[in-house]
Fold:
Amino acid sequence: MDEENINSILSQYNINVVDVKKQSDKGKKAVWWIKTTGGDKVLKKHSCSSKTLEFILSAVEHLQNGRVNLSKIIKTKDNSNYIKGVNCCYVLSDAIIGNPPNEDKPQELKMIVEQLATFHYDSKNFVFPDDCKPRLHLGLQKDEFEGQMIKLKSFYDLEISKPKHSEFGQIIITEFPYFYKRMQLAITENEKSGYAKWSLEAKSTNCLCHQDFTASNLILTNSKDIFVLDIDSITIDLPTRDIRKFLNKIMKKKGQWDSKLTSQILQWYNALNPLDHWKWQVLKEALIFPHLFVGIMSKYYEKREVNWPEARYIERLKGMIKTEKSIEPILQNFERIIPS
Structure:
């Protein structure tokens, strides 16, 4: 967007602009830092439809009515929460000043986990507008697992059929059978874990999931409040979706699973958003599925990172395999790790 167009967007707000700086631009998505006489603001370009954005913004409003810290949305002169552009929408909000919390510091990690638990607890009973386009993931986990398994099996079969194999391909030939069994087990456990029962129950409560609840999407202010950012992917699903993703990212960063830390994180979470014992089994089958291995294998065969050299793919693959296999003791002793 050129300067004339962004000025046209900003002119639709009751603000006095002092300076505009582009923070990021990925084409369909972009972020600008707006300095005004009334404080710093952030203008965000959303690639979703206006009806999906209305779902997102209604979720923000619901969470703000609870204890979740989210940036205040600035209304336009026409009292709208957003401006509709060409195949995109724009939202202006207050800038949050601070830094991402440090997951390596136990106290700050605890604050992140507690904010995640609060996010899920306060999202309950969310009611979205009738005319919006909601995001719903409830009840879809088995289909997602099966779809990923079928896709990766086709990549494996393709690799097997090659007359010669790269180093990456040789590792896949050796390791894929183990992970294929993990995928099959996760699908079997999905049917036994109570996932379907919980999904049916959750249809009446509409728990919201952030889908990327990590330190990079949080701000810790000087007053020690954690604000949640980047809610573009918010969806209705079981809280175990966020918990699984959070645990995977923490343990991937550590290079291996840590039973004591896993138990501590789940205890911190359960203190603010208690889950019935049987619901923790739903988390177990989500952890059985090898999401990290699936991610790097898909990325390689779908050529999603064209600038990555083969060596980087191999390094990532070895790291994901090590992390994924280190979860075995946790899965075997899951009853002792989950909150009682």
The beta strands are 17-25, 30-36, 39-46, 69-70, 83-84, 89-94, 208-209, 218-220, 226-228, 235-236.
